[in-house]
């Protein structure tokens, strides 16, 4: 059996409290300062945890950010099942919109995405984060196929990506508001494209 990466196990008691405090501090520092200025000693100070503990458990900033992304993916709300593809995708889009529009979370995602463009470890962690979230929501597309709302052969992962792509684009490229109406339009566009067969394999 392979050994778990440092900081990725979910033990209980004091260890869990230390991990939660360090991840919270890392998220705060990332949102405030960006990836380039992250420092394990500063994060330890913010979390009121010994530096040695942080260095021993995570070792590098990249490992800590990877664990933060794992935690964020696991803490994200589960998918909503409304009984219709449009309802499910609107729920997904609104969840993404609320996360990205949140002052802390929006900055945190911008910082991680920026870091992923030049740091392979952060890019891998970001890819794992989205793989977990897409896998969580893909069943709603499979259910829509079973109900006849989407063509056979539709790729569920592509549909879920299509919902959030316009929201991330707006976050990263414009100063336009990231509101619920924008989320709903993203879901409606993804449903229309799905029904037209745009995401068939």
From TrEMBL:
SUPFAM superfamilies: Homeodomain-like, Tetracyclin repressor-like, C-terminal domain
Keywords for this protein: DNA-binding, Transcription, Transcription regulation
InterPro entries: Homeodomain-like_sf, HTH-type_TetR-like_transc_reg, HTH_TetR, Tet_transcr_reg_TetR-rel_C_sf, TetR_C
One Pfam family here: TetR_C_11
Any one Gene Ontology molecular-function term assigned to this protein's record: transcription cis-regulatory region binding
Residue ranges of the annotated DNA-binding region, renumbered to this chain: 39-58
Source organism superkingdom: Bacteria
Descriptive protein name: Transcriptional regulator
Species name: Acrocarpospora macrocephala
């Amino acid at each position: 059996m392979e050994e778990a990466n440092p900081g990725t196990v979910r033990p209980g008691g004091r260890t869990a409290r230390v991990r939660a405090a360090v991840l919270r501090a890392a998220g705060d520092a990332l949102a405030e300062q960006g990836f380039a200025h992250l420092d394990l000693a500063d994060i330890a100070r913010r979390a009121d945890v010994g530096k040695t503990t942080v260095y021993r458990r995570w070792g590098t900033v990249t490992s800590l950010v990877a664990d933060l992304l794992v935690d964020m993916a696991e803490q994200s709300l589960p998918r909503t099942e409304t009984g219709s593809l449009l309802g499910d995708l609107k729920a997904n889009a609104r969840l993404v919109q609320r996360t990205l529009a949140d002052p802390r979370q929006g900055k945190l995602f911008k910082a991680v995405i920026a870091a992923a463009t030049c740091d392979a470890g952060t890019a891998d962690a970001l890819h794992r984060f989205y793989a977990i979230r897409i896998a969580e929501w893909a069943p709603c597309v499979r259910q829509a196929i079973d109900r006849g709302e989407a063509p056979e052969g539709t790729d569920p992962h592509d549909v879920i990506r299509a919902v959030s792509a316009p929201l991330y684009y707006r976050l990263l490229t414009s100063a336009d508001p990231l509101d619920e109406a924008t989320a709903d339009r993203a879901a409606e566009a993804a449903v229309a494209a799905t029904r037209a067969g745009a995401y068939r394999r």
